[in-house]
Amino acid sequence: AFTADVVPQAPEDPLFGLMAAYRKDTNEKKVDLGIGAYRDDNAKPWVLPVVKEADDLLRKDPDLNHEYLPIGGLVAFNQASQKLILGKDSAAIKDQRVVSLQTVSGTGAVHLGSAFIAKFYTPKTAEAKAIYISSPSWANHNQIIDNVHLPVKTYPYFSKETKGLDFDGMINGLESAPEGSVILLHACAHNPTGVDPTREQWTKIAEVMKQKKHFPFFDCAYQGFASGSLSTDAWAINHFVDQGFELMIAQSYAKNFGLYGERAGCFHFVAAPAGNAQDTVARVGSQLAILQRSEISNPPAYGARIASLILNDEKLFAQWEEDLRTMSGRIKSMRKALKSHLDQLGTPGKWDHIMEQIGMFSFTGLNEQQVGRLRSEFHVYMTKNGRISMAGLNRGNVEYFAKSMDEVVR
Ligand code: PMP
């Protein structure tokens, strides 16, 4: 029954294919700039010291067992996650307008939100039932939304000329989307471009979305990892909440805790302050629980336990903030180093965007052919769109990478 015309061979996931090719390369100069995970100055995975400490504490707990978590996950984790993303003194939390479920990391949270939209969202016109993503966006957004049978539409985001935000294009895109569309926004450290709106631009984006009655869906995969400050990186979300939007948030702890494989994340639905918000979150929460139960029954426990321990302990929390500054600081220093090597080499082109972009990634502007040459001649691995993971650079390879880049650009 499953012949090739029914089930065609799917292409390999480009990122995972890239990783496999990198592993096979035996050249000692090889550089992995595809990886979407933090690396230390020795190009090694980094277990955050605070995570190591929480892990040790957990393992010493004689009562630790492997029972199921509730459908919605670990309650202490969900509550701490709300406070982290919305702020300790959030009016939305005080008013009990937030319902949160622990998810299979950020991917699971984006999926849960998308599944909820697919099942329950009833905008005035059928054409508004779609999810708008930025062009470009994290590639998986397409598949996650498509999997729940919702149309994926796009709004302009990146300007190839300035290698910054195409702000006018974005505003036009939001204005021309049918009223009441679902708009997926990257809360900070936009993947893949590293380009974020300024606060002034966010304010305007919120105004337009309010006029058009759009529904915001924030994907927050880098809180604290981007700027080094947890509240700075959550600014856009909190601005929208303050403006009285009803919205959803997908929160990942993969990058900011380095808990990638443990799959710790959280989904939040925030009801608007008007109307009977508590009733809304109760109903929405009951349906989210059914979606969750039918798909994963209950979320994985260990990573959430680690995160929860840290989030709910003042001392560990402060230590975590220190670790976040270590990661974001190292990445910022690599941006500086790369830019100054390119300056010294007099590499043709303008490279200020490397300093202006934020977070794990930088959209270099290198084209597919240049990316191909970097890989075949210089053993430097990155995605075809010219995105580099800043975390793959370190004091040992940044000069080599700058020189390789210089050669393929000339
Ligand atoms: N959204 C964006 C924009 C991301 O970059 C990522 C991580 N690559 C995720 C969501 C989710 O990742 P995870 O499922 O590992 O939390």
From TrEMBL:
Q: Which residues form the Aminotransferase class I/classII large domain?
A: 29-403
What is one Gene Ontology biological process annotated in the Swiss-Prot or TrEMBL record? aspartate biosynthetic process
Q: Name one GO molecular function term.
A: L-aspartate:2-oxoglutarate aminotransferase activity
Q: Which UniProt keywords apply?
A: Aminotransferase, Pyridoxal phosphate, Transferase
Q: Could you confirm whether the keyword Transferase appears in this record?
A: yes
The family database entries (Pfam families) matched by this protein are listed as: Aminotran_1_2 (PF00155)
EC assignment: 2.6.1.1
Which reaction does this chain catalyze? Answer: L-aspartate + 2-oxoglutarate = oxaloacetate + L-glutamate
One GO cellular component, as annotated: cytosol
Keyword Acyltransferase in annotation: no
Which co-factor is required?
A: pyridoxal 5'-phosphate
Relay the record's extra comment.
In eukaryotes there are cytoplasmic, mitochondrial and chloroplastic isozymes.
Complex formation: Homodimer.
Instruction: Tell me the protein family, please.
Output: Belongs to the class-I pyridoxal-phosphate-dependent aminotransferase family.
From the Swiss-Prot or TrEMBL record, give the protein name.
Aspartate aminotransferase
